[in-house]
Amino acid sequence: MKVVLFVIALSAALTGSLAVKSLVFPRETATSYVEVIPRKPLNLKAFTLCMLVATELRGDRAVILFAYRTQDTDELNVWRERDGSLSFYLSGNAVTFQVPQLGALQTHLCVIWDYSSGAGALFMNGRKSLTKIYKSDHAIRPGGRIVLGQDPDALLGGFDINQSFVGEISDVNMWDSVLPKNNIQDMFCGKRIQRGTVIDWETAQLKVNGEVTVIDYKL
Ligand SMILES: *[C@@H]1O[C@H](CO)[C@@H](O)[C@H](O)[C@H]1NC(C)=O
User: Which fold has domain 3-218?
Assistant: First the structure.
């Protein structure tokens, strides 16, 4: 019994002191970005990509939320579109979801996709969107770079100020499978589930370029 209590106290202490990095992009630029180094190459036939995101950008432009690009191809991009809908692109056309607008309050956003059925969907704050059949028999290819804050039209360049991200992004995690709905809901509720197999935000190396402030917040 004493041992059990000790373990509970210890894990509470550890959880209490856990700090998570958060990226603040203060203004529109064509130069500020963060490259995220994954744990393994993005050779993916399925994925779950989650992040906490907040932006006050409004109006008539698209905003990049996540970009993974190989030399010649946008392998996986996640966008806030001009009309406020959210979409993702796997080297080609978009699949778009008419969801509530992002805003100043953090949204827990996840994107899921699986090649066998081509099923794609979003989760916003633990609520799943409708499923859309997008690309079956496709794969995301390795050898690219992951960029937050800009939409690269070359491997790590070709940025457009009018597509840049302004706001705060944190807790970007990626898995090479579609996680069960209850895992995604647990994450939204603040439980620390199994760490990302492709991107583990707690240990990921971040290469910060330009005007981006990395802050730590305690969980
Ligand atoms: C960005 O958008 C502004 C306002 O629409 C425009 O004046 C400017 O030319 C655009 N810049 C680029 C690099 O496209």
Answer: Jelly Rolls (2.60.120)
